[in-house]
Amino acid sequence: MANVVRAAFVLASLSLGVYTANHSASTFSYAKTSIFTLIFYIPFHLAWSIFLFPLYFSPLLSLPQAPREGGWKSFFQTRDSRQVLRWMETIPNDGLIRYLDVFNMEVVAVTTPRGAAEFLQVRADQYVKNPKIKRILENLLGNGLVVAEGMDHKYQRKHLLPAFNVKVIKNLYPLFWIKATEMVTLIKQEVETGPKATEKSSASINIDDWAGRVSLDIIGQAGFGSEFSSLSHPNTALNTSYRAAFVPNDNSKLIFVLSLLTTPKLVNLLPGKNNALFREGKRSVTDWVRNLIQERKTDMHNHLDDLDYMEKSGQKDIIAAAMKTKAFSTEDLVHQSKTLLGAGHETSATAVTWGIYILSQPRYAHIQDRLRREIRANLPSPSSGIEVTADMLDKLPYLDAVSKEIMRVYAPVPTVGRVPAQDTDIFGVKIPKGTSVRVHLWAMNKAKQFWGEDAAEFDPERWLVGKDKAMGGATDSLAYLTFGHGPRGCIGRGFAIGENKAILAALVGSFDFKPVPGTDPDDIDVLFGITARIIGGYDVQTTVVEGW
Fold this sequence. Notes:
The protein has 22 helices and twelve strands.
């Protein structure tokens, strides 16, 4: 029915265009006919796409519907996972809820772990990224593992997996700790002697800034075998370019909406300081990555006879491993490198920021204190210079529980969205080709029906007690969706977990975190984009805790 009505609208608009053009001139004109046809077609198309189809003709109108919230302004706003969680718990549904997103774009939200498995695992090959979202990601990251689809994605993942195996990741733990302790040393200097320092070795710091810098240095070493020096020299050309290209700012929400409405390439051309910095930052990062790869390739070519040259020269980073497979061209490696920088670093930094944000709140002071006691009882002080290994970090049960709980409550990637490449179904409900289908990880990870009445509460204990501790007490093993599932699940899961635990241990072992006096931790603005970031970062009162 909907297709018939749409066809009628298109035919009517085209007919009106042709009729008007040829009755406004004495002779037939292809140019005039085309112009008038567009003049009539565009408003008809917009009326159909934005109002008529989603409100009256969608075949999915029979699904449980989420209410329109926020009045007319909501038409220009994307819905976030906090709203979806509320709908999941208040709207009766059998695993699917339909809602209208920005510009009345129709979305089907999957609301159960089994539905998510159907979507992410069982029928993963039937879904692709929304073309609009894919263009935004490709504009930022290139066609790397996050953006690639189908056989291209399978090929990339197959040849990148060796760089993320358990042995490789475990061997990176000492690097995670070295960089975390370097950060601790610099924060101590700021807290004790910086412009905001007090007599009690306490000062306000922006933890998001420090999290971004340490994560960037880690990905520099682990990903590229390069020293970015973001911690010690945050204003180098590369670090400045990176922040301009990948770190969200006050205009990010507007840019995201405009990119959905038009195209990222068109938005890139808009005037303004932030846009100019973004363009220049993206170009500089791309040039740096390409030069690094070309230098590596030249080096490899000069040592063709030595099959173990990369190993002997200490090139054990992720990009070196990818180059060793000889499966990727130079441009392929550029795309993978931008993906590492953008997606890999960003998610790690986000997890650290949310971790300190929640631990700093007074009602969770006992959790912070307990974690500090475990860390100090089992790990050497950052000032000792003693190496910390994977075995040492992985034997700390409370650290593991706190890290898991942070990533449950504040999943760095809030949403996974796809569209079916062909007509399909979920739970017997037909989902037409091109329909936006989403799993809101923030919502699924905190839904009471899977995690119990205290689902929204930050409680590491849920990972320590009872026979279900491996699942955090969830009723379904797939309820913990932070890293996704299936063939597109996070390839860097082990890397992210190890890095997060090392950074948390160094920070909480060294400092006590509290809200800055006179501020409200709940008064934050979150950007739900590729990651869920606190806009402007998070300022936290940081005090040195002696005795370690």
